[in-house]
Design a protein that fits this description.
Shape: globular
Largest sheet: 8 strands, parallel, barrel
Strand order of the largest sheet: 1-2-3-4-5-6-7-8
Structural class: alpha/beta
Helix content: 40-55%
Oligomer: single chain
Order of helices and strands: HEHEHHEHEHEHHEHEHEHH
Number of strands: 8
Bound molecules: cytidine-5'-monophosphate
């Protein structure tokens, strides 16, 4: 784990809201508290790249464009060039389709854009994989590990995985290979109709080696989002022994 990253910068808030008005509200509420805002499909499809301005004009936080690109190499490569021109820090590609797609990460090296491979979505469980045709003998951990290995070998800056696999990934691929962990559930923050499966607390994710954690609903749906974010930062600090 890179110990030079501040606790605030380790917290990425998922701006999973329907439109720019809501986005602006959460950026204003959390501007002093979180180090990065993640813009995903809902907001990007609704508002287009113009939505990036809401973060840029109202904060100095970095931006994670979580579009989980999944296409042929030439298309992913062009999409990464377009994203690099937007001045965002992170972008995601799916890690399931092999080296030729993951290698496109090399083409934007030096642009400031860091490409992260999504290993296995945190909403997927082992029984989901069985239903998808994976064999009984198959291990979800091994799949995550193999995909992380391919991402590392191909030149990605890091991966997105659950807090259940992060220690294993850090042990295998080293501290310099970034691990971003969603599926974060503080013990105090219940999420209604939760679709996440492989969940951990903020403290456990950081203790196990996550460089960054992604938190959406536990902050977004809290009575006081900034208070919830501050509580999560306290947990990050306690995990770091600060
Ligand atoms: O609301 P919640 O904390 O579950 O939000 C998690 C965020 O992280 C969502 O924006 C989701 O798209 C994203 N994410 C994830 N699992 C991955 C990659 C990204 O949950 N493997």
């Amino acid at each position: 784990m890179d110990l030079s990253i501040s606790s605030k910068d380790r917290l990425i808030f998922a701006l999973d809201v329907p439109d720019r008005q809501e986005a602006k509200k959460y950026v204003s509420l959390l501007v002093g508290t979180v180090g990065c805002f993640k813009i995903g499909l809902e907001l990007f499809i609704k508002e287009g790249p113009d939505i990036l301005k809401i973060v840029k004009e109202n904060s100095s936080a970095s931006i994670f464009l979580d579009l989980k690109l999944h296409d042929i190499p030439v298309t992913v490569s062009s999409a990464l060039q377009s994203a690099a021109a937007h001045g965002v820090r992170f972008i995601t590609v799916h890690g399931s389709d092999g080296e030729s797609i993951l290698r496109t990460a090399r083409e934007v090296k030096g642009s400031g854009l860091e490409v992260l491979a999504v290993t296995v979505l945190t909403s997927i469980s082992e029984s989901d994989l069985l239903r998808l045709g994976y064999k009984e003998s198959f291990s979800l951990n091994q799949l995550v590990l193999d995909r992380a290995g391919l991402a590392e070998k191909s030149g990605c800056a890091g991966i997105v995985c659950s807090g259940k696999e992060v220690a294993m990934i850090k042990r295998t691929y080293g501290v310099g290979f970034k691990a971003i962990v969603p599926g974060i559930r503080p013990v105090w923050g219940e999420v209604k109709k939760d679709d996440q499966s492989r969940i951990v607390t903020p403290k456990s994710a950081i203790s196990n080696g996550a460089d960054f954690i992604v938190v959406g609903r536990p902050i977004r749906d809290a009575k006081e989002p900034a208070v919830a974010a501050a509580k999560i930062i306290d947990e990050i600090e306690s995990a770091l022994g600060a």
